[in-house]
Amino acid sequence: MIPPKEAIEKAILQVSDKVKERIQQFKNLKQKGITTFDFKPFLDVQPYQADIFSEACFCILTANFKAATGIKIQAEVGIEGFKNYPLEKLYQIIQSHGHRFAMQRAERIVALRDLKEFLENIVKEKDGKKAREKLVEKVNGYGYKEASHFLRNVGFDDVAIIDRHISRFLFESGLVKPRKTITKKVYLECEEALEKICQDLNLTQSELDLYIFYIKTGKVLK
């Protein structure tokens, strides 16, 4: 296996332009409240707009599910659909993409509508780790990974998304002892290991996540 630092440096040479482009799309959400995502050439989806609320819904969709399919659902539902579609219509769209928990996720998205103002205020926070605690406490369907995912996607640079790709990368690299379950303690241990890599390579957590995801999947998504 290629050592982790060497693998990341290779990925930087290959896709730094795409990573910078994606980071700017995230920053637009934080600064302007709206962005346009373009995932070509990694995914055959036409560019589409997302706002803060639709991004929060996307992160509900992708819990234990593929990011690529979550992107396709987000593109189809659209900004207004997440805010206004009735439960049954949301369910039908999510189910049509093969989501295992289509009704559960549709219900959580409808419930999330009551927290739109809360989400908009969270984006104004300065400290991503403090914002994450508030999200985990408040949002049904958000654990540490989902809360970190949302925060990264709305422009925060200081939280890590410990999903199966990232945890496997850390375990295989010997940077963290392999675990069967990602508890809060393990999550924070993995995040600390990633922070050390960030320091060594002068990267933010958000950039590093995209590079590791690319190493594991060959795609720069979100």
UniProtKB/TrEMBL annotation:
It catalyses: 2'-deoxyribonucleotide-(2'-deoxyribose 5'-phosphate)-2'-deoxyribonucleotide-DNA = a 3'-end 2'-deoxyribonucleotide-(2,3-dehydro-2,3-deoxyribose 5'-phosphate)-DNA + a 5'-end 5'-phospho-2'-deoxyribonucleoside-DNA + H(+). The record marks 222 as: Important for guanine/8-oxoguanine distinction. The active site is at residues 145, 163. Its EC number is 3.2.2.-, 4.2.99.18. CDD domains: ENDO3c. It comes from the Bacteria. SUPFAM superfamilies: DNA-glycosylase. Residues 61-217 form the HhH-GPD domain. InterPro entries: DNA_glyclase/AP_lyase_Ogg, DNA_glycosylase, HhH-GPD_domain, HhH_base_excis_C. SMART domains: ENDO3c. Keywords: DNA damage, DNA repair, Glycosidase, Hydrolase, Lyase, Multifunctional enzyme. It holds the Pfam family Ogg-HhH. GO terms for biological process: base-excision repair. GO terms for molecular function: class I DNA-(apurinic or apyrimidinic site) endonuclease activity; hydrolase activity, hydrolyzing N-glycosyl compounds. Catalyzes the excision of an oxidatively damaged form of guanine (7,8-dihydro-8-oxoguanine = 8-oxoG) from DNA. Also cleaves the DNA backbone at apurinic/apyrimidinic sites (AP sites). Belongs to the type-2 OGG1 family. NCBIfam families: PRK01229.1. This is 8-oxoguanine DNA glycosylase/AP lyase. The gene is ogg.
